[in-house]
Amino acid sequence: SRCEMIEDALLEPLGRDLLAAIQEAQQPHVVLDLSATRFFGSGFIELLLRVWKNLQLRPDSRLALCGLQE
Description:
two-stranded parallel ribbon, two-stranded parallel sheet, 46% helix
């Protein structure tokens, strides 16, 4: 779905859904398309770090961010 601004209220459900999907997958490959996102704060960066650290515990897992804008 399209999300121009990732607000703090979205972080908890987003993090919960991402971490649950990672746990369910045998070799999780997470791709986040941020091309429609114009702004995210430090809370989202913290969420990305939690996801990345979780993925580091899983063999052959990957995290990719695409569509980042200046």
